[in-house]
Amino acid sequence: MCGPYALRMTLRVLPAALLLPVLMASCAPVASLLATREEQGPPPRQAGPLTVGDTWTVGGPIDSRSVAATIGIEDLVDVPGGTASVNERDRLDAFAAGREGFGLARYDPDRRYLTFSWVGTGNTTYVCEVTTLLSLPYQGRLTMQRGGQTVATGTCEANVSR
Questions:
Q1: Domain containing residue 31
Q2: I need a labelling partner for 23 at 20 to 30 A (CA). Which of 17, 42, 90, 116 fits?
Q3: Separation between Cα atoms, residue 67 and residue 71, nearest integer Å
Q4: Are residues 78 and 116 in the same domain?
Q5: Contacts by 28-36 with C-beta closer than 8 Å and gap 24+?
Q6: Which of helix, strand or coil describes residue 97?
């Protein structure tokens, strides 16, 4: 093909052909991110400061002694009023049975509260409620409960290790 038609087609295709390397180069960062994500899989589930795979150390002074617990975030599930590291049924069963060493973390997005609860010796329950999530370690209020009644209060500290 020669003549004016071929020249017109060349003039139409030439700008697109010149832009092709620029367009391909601009896609490289996106392609790189997608390839990395595909290799690593999706990011772990997160709710506020809680991330699946994290381990929290929580404790503080209460009733003339110091208490502490390590709470691992193996999963995050939706529960009434937020997201927790265990479902509501498992929590109720563990606390009702006084299963020593059982702990959970819960995040309430509406109030921006982080709560850690665990069962200690003698069917004692400890609750560390953090209401200000500014910087680690988080500071909060610690309560000790027996039979559903608060018997002592103190302060607590919560810190995460990834």
A1: 1-42
A2: 42
A3: 13
A4: yes
A5: none
A6: helix
Partnered with residue 56 across adjacent β-strands are 71, 160
Q: Are 112 and 140 found together in one domain?
A: yes
pLDDT tens per residue, range 30-62: 555 555 556 778 888 899 999 999 999 999 999
pLDDT digits (tens, 9 = 90+) for 57-84: 999 999 999 999 999 999 999 999 999 9
Please give the tally of structural domains in the chain: 2
| Rounded Cα–Cα distance for residues 24 and 22 (Å) | 5
- Please say if the pLDDT value at position 16 is more than 60: no
Helices and strands (H and E) in the chain: how many: 2, 11
Q: Is the pTM of this model over 0.85?
A: no
Dist. CA 23–CA 36, nearest whole Å:
21
Q: Are residues 150 and 82 part of one domain?
A: yes
- 88: Cβ contacts below 8 Å, ≥ 6 apart: 79, 80
78-94 burial: b if 16+ Cβ within 10 Å, else e: ebeebbbbbeeeebeeb
Asked if 60 and 125 sit in the same domain, the reply is yes
Element (H, E) at 50: strand 50-51
- What type of residue is 6? A
Collapsing DSSP to helix, strand or coil, 108 comes out as strand
